[in-house]
Amino acid sequence: MPVIVQEWGTGEVLMLAYTDEEAWEKTLQTGEAHFYSRSRGTIWHKGGTSGHVQRIREIRLDCDQDAILFMVDLVGGAACHKGYRSCFFTRLRDGKPEVFAETVFDPKEVYSK
Amino acid sequence: MPVIVQEWGTGEVLMLAYTDEEAWEKTLQTGEAHFYSRSRGTIWHKGGTSGHVQRIREIRLDCDQDAILFMVDLVGGAACHKGYRSCFFTRLRDGKPEVFAETVFDPKEVYSK
Fold first, then answer.
1. Are A90 and B62 within 8 A, CB to CB?
2. Domains of chain B, earliest start first
3. For residues A62-101, b (16+ Cβ closer than 10 Å) or e, as one string?
4. Is B61 in Cβ contact with A90 (below 8 Å)?
């Protein structure tokens, strides 16, 4: 089941991830976003490595019960493993992708610790 | 490919839908959101029946190139076929789903025309 993550305070859309029953339960129990990694086939505590956890403020469900919206406080100011605040740091301009955001941390430094 | 639709002016997350190559091209050509319906297996012009089209203001791509964000102006003030502004009109309260939004149109009236 896809999960949209939106920052509570700013409304910025941060990322799209996926949940399963276990990730869902862990999110509810801990109050911090957990996801299911489709590529690794495992549960993943967002921010577990980087410290950039996502504290749940509100959870919303869509009309068809096939999408979820996590509204979160973003600890550390970044949701993207590439160092950006949001994973959506690229926009289309005249049909071409253009990076418009700036990194807030250096992934090499954070993930090599 | 999943598409998050967010209202340009308010930042409200409106819906999650899907695109394919044809829906993507039609969206770029017309400047109005088109989606791929996984259940019907067809392309779908959002608002084609209700008049509640979504005019594209900006398109963003995520870091893994596997999710898209449409930032739109919402003609008619509603994105949800159930008559709500956003498809995310239900929130969890103490673990239970609760509708917190109000409808802005009557689906029976709009879709029977």
1. yes
2. 2-112 (3.10.20.810)
3. bbeeebbbbbbebeeebbbbebbbbbbbbbeeeeeeeeeb
4. yes
| Residue-wise DSSP of B6-23 | EETTT--EEEEEE--HHH
Q: How far is B111 from chain A (nearest CA, A)?
A: 17
Q: What is the pLDDT of residue A113?
A: 57
pTM of the full structure = 0.96
ipTM metric: 0.95
Instruction: Give the tens place of pLDDT for each residue, B13-45.
Output: 999 999 999 999 999 999 999 999 999 999 999
Asked whether the beta carbons of residue A91 and residue B59 sit closer than 8 angstroms, the reply is: yes
The size of chain A, in residues, is 113
